[in-house]
Design a protein that fits this description.
Helix content: 40-55%
Oligomer: single chain
Number of strands: 4
Radius of gyration: 15 Å
Largest sheet: 4 strands, antiparallel
Structural class: alpha+beta
């Protein structure tokens, strides 16, 4: 086959360092727009982005020429640099790690809805509980000694 065709869907989740509440409404849309550009520049597609003041969720269709860790690294590094130019965000950092969970095409509508409803969802559940639940759901073991920074 002369073509290489790829569709790998990833639900990525990561928080601000120490879950600091720094993703304020005034920069949220611009942040997700900036992240969209980073993802596109890396040959991938952002399907939806949302989150709360201390973490974000991204549903990404990963391109064929980049690995997950490289893409997430680019997103975190470049968006952190950008945020620091947006006002009083000199202390902004993303947490060291991340969660990246594969999903199937049939799961896209459910994951899109889940991501779209993040603010409502977190009225009753904090990030740590949510992340633990995602790890359980996707069958990923979490070592809590290293999960939170």
């Amino acid at each position: 086959m002369p073509q290489s065709l790829v569709k790998v869907l990833i639900h990525a989740v990561f928080s601000t360092k120490n879950r600091a509440k720094l993703i304020v409404p005034e920069i949220e849309a611009s942040l997700f727009g900036y992240i969209h550009g980073i993802i596109e520049k890396n040959g991938s597609k952002l399907i939806i982005a949302n989150g709360t003041t201390n973490h974000i969720h991204l549903l990404i269709s990963i391109g064929r020429s980049i690995g997950i860790s490289e893409l997430i690294g680019d997103i975190k590094r470049d968006s952190s640099k950008w945020i620091k130019t947006q006002g009083d965000f000199g202390d902004f950092y993303w947490q060291e790690g991340y969660g990246a969970f594969s999903i199937g095409e049939s799961q896209v509508p459910r994951v899109v809805k889940y991501i779209a409803e993040q603010k409502e969802h977190h009225a009753a559940r904090d990030f740590k509980d949510e992340f633990r639940g995602l790890c359980r759901k996707y069958g990923v073991e979490i070592d809590e000694r290293y999960a939170w920074d």
